[in-house]
Amino acid sequence: MSMTQRSLMELADFLDAKLIGHPDHKITGIADLQSASASDLSFVNQESYLKYLADSSTGAVILCSDFADKYSGNKLIVANTYLAYAKVSALFETLSTLPVGIHPSAIIAASADIDPSAAIGPNCVIGAKARIGAGAKLYSGVSIGDRASISDNTLIHPNVTIYHGVSIGKNCVIHSGTVVGSDGFGFAPTQDGWQKIHQLGTVLIGDSVEIGSNCSIDRGALGDTVIHDNVIIDNLVHIAHNVSIGKRSAIAGCVGIAGSAKIGASCTVAGAVAINGHITIADNSHFHGGTIVTKGNAEPGVFASTPPMQDVKKWRRNSVRYTQLDEMSSKIRQLEKQLKSLLPNETSDK
């Protein structure tokens, strides 16, 4: 639970919202309409949630002007309710604070450059010539490799591993268990097995990037893996060597992106999408969940390849029919030829 307490007038000023109600009413948290108490703030982003307003015990609601007359209690009127919710959520963050300075249990190389305003938590390890920027926060157990760079105000949650030479921009967030800069999957076949190809590039991450937990982002083989500014990546995502992800793109959970794929700017990739290597995805491309992306696209669009859910009996029948498509296509062509041979020849007499 948040220990923060804000008056509705403070929240209205923060959101540049129109306040209708009691300006001194105190808010200590954010909750949905069904579970909110008198000290909570709620929001309505879709018309389907209006039905919960009448019975809600919430202390105040963020609403757009179109819905303002649907609620008689305390309300904050804004142009974009979901954006307002996102902004105000920062005021009620419950993440434990990390004191500025270096915890006594941290292991820091003598040549590492750590800004005095950075916070280094328990059992962190920071390698030779690594750089930690102003206001950066490294929670417990974070490992930073030699020559890696963590820029200003970046927050790294416990047990993240940043390999040697990796560069991470300003205002980033990386969640627990993620590994950045591990070797890409590069091997040359031999008669005796596999010869490892050493991965000589690194990973370059721009500003304001957020990466979820337990992701793996491989370093480049030759050249770098690059994640540009304002990209958001969900949990359990694998990004292979030399991948590039353009600005403002969003990657949902369990996505796999094979080596040297180029994802454009402002793309969205839904859960469990698999993207082939060495292809280029245009800016503003959007992929539905489970899509298998085998080739690139030069123009923006919305793409899907996974069949929708169906009753298992129907699915079994359709699966069998799918294997018969080639045979059925051949039969149809034969029937078309037979039909054509039976039809009278066209004449020009009119």
Automatic annotation (TrEMBL):
Pathways per UniProt: Bacterial outer membrane biogenesis; LPS lipid A biosynthesis
GO BP term, example: lipid A biosynthetic process
UDP-3-O-[3-hydroxymyristoyl] glucosamine N-acyltransferase non-repeat region domain mapped to chain residues: 24-91
Top-rank taxon, per record: Bacteria
Catalytic function, reaction form: a UDP-3-O-[(3R)-3-hydroxyacyl]-alpha-D-glucosamine + a (3R)-hydroxyacyl-[ACP] = a UDP-2-N,3-O-bis[(3R)-3-hydroxyacyl]-alpha-D-glucosamine + holo-[ACP] + H(+)
Protein's UniProt keywords contain Membrane: no
Keywords: Acyltransferase, Lipid A biosynthesis, Lipid biosynthesis, Lipid metabolism, Repeat, Transferase
Listed name of the protein: UDP-3-O-acylglucosamine N-acyltransferase
Organism: Zhongshania aliphaticivorans
Taxonomic placement: Bacteria, Pseudomonadati, Pseudomonadota, Gammaproteobacteria, Cellvibrionales
